[in-house]
Write a structure and sequence with these properties.
homodimer; alpha+beta; Jelly Rolls; four-stranded antiparallel sheet; 8 strands; about 45% helix; DNA-binding
Chain lengths: ~190, ~190
DNA sequence: CAGGACATTTAACAAATGCTAAAAAGCGTT
DNA sequence: AACGCTTTTTAGCATTTGTTAAATGTCCTG
């Protein structure tokens, strides 16, 4: 739980009573590889804070291809934010792609924290802003750069992912076919 | 100013005193086509709410190409959020691509609103969440779909942009060369 | 309405990437 | 070590997209 509190304290201050209030509501759970944290068509039940492991968000396009939109790893919140807030059906999957350890909060507990802790909106707002910037940075270059550049940037930003994640996920995240990614890897080395 | 208040009221309630407080701090200004709202290398001075016109965010990649990242139009806030909050130098330009009319807020006034109005964080947090979802929806398909599909989706989502925006901006936004976009337009019709 | 500046289209060729299927490599289990 | 299963690589060919430069179109100004 401490890792999460540390994370939160980067974005605002919390006294020990508030920390206790938050801690009391988080439950540590584990997911095994390939297990879903939330599923398309179902209402997301939890916000999670990742203690260990990597998740991906993904969906099936109209050709039936499995497309990975993003990877999320240790020391980050994971949730289908808007669908969780609105408690409506998600359109994407969130899947554990390694064994994972997560602190989860139910909607009720998350709302209670928001109502109880003055400044909670400011903290989550800041986290959100940081996430937006990161997402844009990560995804903008995917649109404009060629395949080799995209892969090199990915390696640079997520060196630890290369050997922990199936190549097919990386290929679809980078917007290319898997054989193309293989070819690129060969050319680089 | 009313258009902005209406927009805000979608995300939370404000009493007439609060509305007055906000209105007193916004100044209506105009920008002509090609004028910058904020510039790379400079600290953003304003948050804006667009009453009329279209902006784009853009930057120059390492080959010197002018790349458009996004379009923003009427009835939306426009700002380099994180750089504005932190008051540090921006890395992108925000440029008017039509004549524009905008309500602007200085950093000081924006902060004063945040300090004065209870629930402001909650309102801006909601707007932020909505923006994140929209940005992701708009940009995710750019990575995985082919050029024709990307253009068709763009036309569907922004039919009014096609005749108001230079094609070169649209081409770079969609991640393709301008002659490719021309070819696609020909094939479609 | 002529001229100039800028935006868009066209064409031909080059390069990159997609697609398919088969081969190879890796991995866990027995 | 051998087997089955999954992942990754390879190869050849088809298709898409990029690149460059010239031609055409459009709009504004004098």
């Amino acid at each position: 739980m401490n890792k999460m509190i540390e994370y939160l304290l980067q974005f605002g201050s919390l006294d020990s009573e508030q920390i206790q209030f938050i801690s009391d509501r988080g439950k540590v759970t584990t997911l095994v590889t390939n297990e879903y944290f939330s599923e398309a068509g179902k209402t997301p039940r939890y916000v999670g804070f990742i203690l260990k492991g990597i998740f991906r968000t993904c969906y099936y396009n109209n050709k039936g291809d499995d497309i990975t939109h993003d990877f999320i790893d240790e020391n980050n919140f994971v949730t289908d934010m808007q669908k969780f807030e609105a408690q409506t059906a998600a359109t994407e999957y969130i899947q554990a792609i390694t064994d994972c350890e997560v602190i989860v909060f139910t909607k009720k507990d998350w709302d209670d924290i928001g109502k109880t802790i003055i400044g909670w909106d400011a903290i989550t707002g800041q986290i959100l802003r940081k996430c937006v910037v990161e997402i844009l940075e990560r995804r903008n270059f995917l649109v404009t750069e060629d395949a080799t550049t995209r892969y090199l940037s990915f390696m640079k930003k997520f060196p630890s992912f290369i050997n922990r994640i199936p190549l097919s996920y990386i290929a679809s995240y980078l917007g290319m076919a898997q054989p193309s990614l293989s070819r690129i890897r060969k050319n680089i080395s």
